[in-house]
Design goal:
By secondary structure, chain A is mainly α. Chain A is built from eleven helices and no strands. Classes of the chains: A mainly alpha (315), B mainly alpha (297).
Chain lengths: 315, 297
Amino acid sequence: MLRFLLNRLGQSVVLLLIVTVITFFLINLAPGGPASTMRMEASPEERQAMIEKLGLDQPIYVRYIDWITHAVQGDLGISFTSSEPVIQRISERLPYTIELTVFTIVISVIVGILLGVLSAIKRGKAQDHIINFMSVIGLSVPAFWLGLMLILLFSITLGWLPSSGVGSRGADFDLWGWISHLILPVLILTTTVLPNIVRFTRSSMLEVISQNYIRTVRAKGAKESIVLYVHALRNALIPVVTIIGVLIPRLLSGAVITEAIFGWTGIGTLIIEAARGRDYPLVMGVTVMITIVVVVCNLFVDLVYSRIDPRVKNV
Amino acid sequence: MEASTQTNVTSGVAVKAKKRKNTLLNRLRQNKVAYFSLWFLIVLHVVVFIGPFIWTANPEELQEVGALASWSLQHPFGTDDLGRDVFARMLHGGRVTLLVGLAAMLFSLLIGTFVGACAGFFGKVVESIFMRITEAMMAIPNFFFVLVALTVLGTSPIMVIVVIALSSWMEIARVVYGETLKWKEYEFVEAANASGAKSMRILTRYIIPQIIPSIIVSGTLTIAAAILTESAISYLGLGIQPPTPTWGNMLQNSQQYIWTAPVLGILPGAAITIAVLAYNFLGDGLRDALDPRFVKK
């Protein structure tokens, strides 16, 4: 178990390194550094001063080594655009994204498994077709467009829900204000992952139902409900754990768009601001932070999976 | 003697392939939604690619009727906020959007199949390197990658295609990898191996043909995803830039005019949804048609 854990941890570190190298070289090798986004009237001297101040005159590998040595000590540099530490800007925004994604994943998993199992049990019947149809629609509607339409309906026409923002936090926190700001973003984000969970649960359940041991249980004369819920469901849910790991990056990608639509001040809107402002340290910081989140989630999923499925070899 | 056996074998393969193709289409026909989607997509592509030759209004030119004109015979969907013909923009925008989807899919199929097949077949170092890279790419939420890459590399259509493809081949690689692992254990592959066939030949002649059905399914679903990604980045203003219309960037300014000209917001979004929906239905239908377990009758 310990060996497995260390092995996976080592792999995660390698993965993080690959991601940082790709991102770092990508953003640094391209034309149009931060100096090019300075005011038009900046003199060549001012420009040069800025380049030197930011260390952009160094060769790229020197900058990468410099960056990575600081990064492992928890120093992700200073944001170009706001002159605040990158780590501070990220930690201001990350909780909002976590809030959004945690709500989404909990709702998606519960609803997704229920619908997936229902769909598999009622295979070929009306319920199955409706659920299938709805999941394909969920996968196909562009989140930003659905968001616009929902804002149009619930915020503008009906006036029930706020169209943007995160609600008031801190001292004048009120529960309904908080929930009402969450409903639409969570709903939109749910549409990006729910269909996958439903379909995965359904096919996993169908796969298990077609196994020999299920036939044996049926042949023994067990009641259908016992066959399904006692013997099939338990094994069908095991692979569903893995899909959750796969869906985390997808969820975070979806969060970028969702946050953009609803003006949700999370990590998604931060990366858009950083990318537009060519704020290199911030872009790097956000990418690293997101990768860490993904890696930790995957590690956790692997651990859970190897615990609940004895067939998985710990290599 | 050897030559004649060779021809027999190849013609046998050809006959088998033809038979399979027929049954595939027949099986697909049983799934009405998927079959309808196939036809719908054919019609949609014809309309979007041939339409601009018939409807010759310039999508980037300002019309005499002015901005936000409502529908008329000259302008069936009216004009947009700058006074450009919306119908022409829908046709040209569809061309760009669908082409970007198709091109990105082809490119990512190429990368994904190469990576997955090599990793699965050769194992060892190739497998660890390729699959670690695949995992690393899957671990970066691809929308972050796309945003960063496009801001840095620019937003020409070619760049958009390349970046979308580079961010979406991993799923295909994993599918191909899994299938290659499965097929390489089969007796016919062992037989080919024993008879002295070279690895590249085994891979391209024996294994990849078995995987083609899965590749087709993945490809169809990849187009759908690519269209969605393109429209999302265009909506954020980081994709293909106006005045070149795409269904995604047509939505960029539509939010402001949602009351005065709802068509501007509804049309491109609906077009994206329908096209993606049809590709997804077709992909699902193909998957079911190709999967012996899921075929009824």
